[in-house]
Sequence to fold (81 residues):
Amino acid sequence: MSKLFKDLDINDVFNEWQNMPEFVQEKQEPYQTIIVRFRCKEDVEEFARLIGQPLTPKTKSIWHPVLVRGLNSHKRWRDEP
Fold:
């Protein structure tokens, strides 16, 4: 354990989490998945332009419209006191 936490009692840490509200994060699943095949690089580039999203040779999947990650990361939920 680092010097920063040398006086920390690990049991106190676990006691702090007692009676905390339960939180379950549901996995966001797609409504539908479609496989799109392209004949050439130019077709991929045209499709990327049409949907307004970058596509590279390494792109395996995308969300449409673009999935904004961390959109709710600044929000906090709590039980009423």
Q: What stands out?
A: Residues 1 and 29 are 39 Å apart (CA to CA). Residues 33-60 form one domain. The mean pLDDT is 83.
